[in-house]
Amino acid sequence: MALRHAVLAALLDDELSGYQLAKAFNVGVANFWHALPQQLYAELARLETDGLVTGREVVQDTRPNKRLFRVTDAGLAELERFAATAAKPSFVRDELLVKVQTADRIGTGAVIEQLVERAEFAAAKIELFTSLLEKIRGDRDEEDFLLHGTRIGPYLTCLRGLAFEQGNKDWCERSAAVLRARRSAEV
Amino acid sequence: MALRHAVLAALLDDELSGYQLAKAFNVGVANFWHALPQQLYAELARLETDGLVTGREVVQDTRPNKRLFRVTDAGLAELERFAATAAKPSFVRDELLVKVQTADRIGTGAVIEQLVERAEFAAAKIELFTSLLEKIRGDRDEEDFLLHGTRIGPYLTCLRGLAFEQGNKDWCERSAAVLRARRSAEV
DNA sequence: TCTGAATAGTCACTTTCTTGAGTATGATGG
DNA sequence: CCATCATACTCAAGAAAGTGACTATTCAGA
């Protein structure tokens, strides 16, 4: 019963189809939640039967028809209730970190490659989030926007995502450099 | 089949009981993986039948007896194989971020409290990781240790954990301050 | 002396997630 | 003209994870 709130939170700003929601879960929403499209479609169906979202059919001629969902008053009340309960500690699952943990006991060639890839991926996210933040705040400066702007929630979570990816990039580059240096030292 | 590698990685440095492993998954290992004790006991049993770890009974008189597990050669080979496969992207799940995402649509009192709590929790982790890093590297300086030390894997993942918690703390404090300022502005 | 926490686990049940496949159409690129 | 990608979803099966309760002993604190 936790994906449910992530979906409601994601739908709060825009009316989205399941497909669009799935894409949102691959970029911005991925800063705080992870889910596959199948889960999202299933969760949307449950949310609708529970009356927390409503869907409306949109007929398209050049594309398959779609259903757009928005949060109902009951959905907003559910989020309100959720915000008041204690949050579970965050959790991370990262295979790459598992691999690095074993780095002094196994061959590191493949791990170094993956660290480089991950650093590049993080760099791309950094660019994405940077421009997304600019877009949200428009021409205001950050202080002003944070105090008086709307859509402050998505802005703040995006800031967290940016810092996370920055940390990721720095760490991946550092770790790759260290492992490379050890490989040449070891010969 | 992914918890499996996290368990192997955690057992690589020390021979641990299920109970000790569970505690490890609450601190250092939590930087890259999350699991409950029941899962760990079950996974250890599977790993043992698969020959990737071996357990030995240790009789204690003041405490209940325990079984200590260590990674076998087959287990190490499995980690080697795992390191060579492509890593899935990391994923995060954080209820607190979900709540912040909704911050401009709901009452923020409870969320601010939780941000403060989380910041304090992060501060405690920062201290823990800082002293853990010092303990691992002893009196060497970091550059020297990273190039020539042993147990480099745990050191690197701990560095990531430290940076993550630092980012967490900064973001929580900043966000709490922003939401507080908006509350007083709104009156 | 009683309570609660720490050690060291086990069992059963339920929910959630992942894997993999399948449907159908239109647009894009070579 | 054909292949592939993007849109927009659905279904089923199996693996993984989470919830909650339970056993048993020892130590520390009120």
TrEMBL record, chains A, B:
This is DNA-binding transcriptional regulator, PadR family. The keyword Cell membrane does not apply. InterPro entries: Tscrpt_reg_PadR_C, Tscrpt_reg_PadR_N, WH-like_DNA-bd_sf, WH_DNA-bd_sf. Residues 92-180 form the Transcription regulator PadR C-terminal domain. Pfam families: PadR (PF03551), Vir_act_alpha_C (PF10400). Keywords: DNA-binding. GO terms for molecular function: DNA binding. It comes from the Bacteria. Residues 7-80 form the Transcription regulator PadR N-terminal domain.
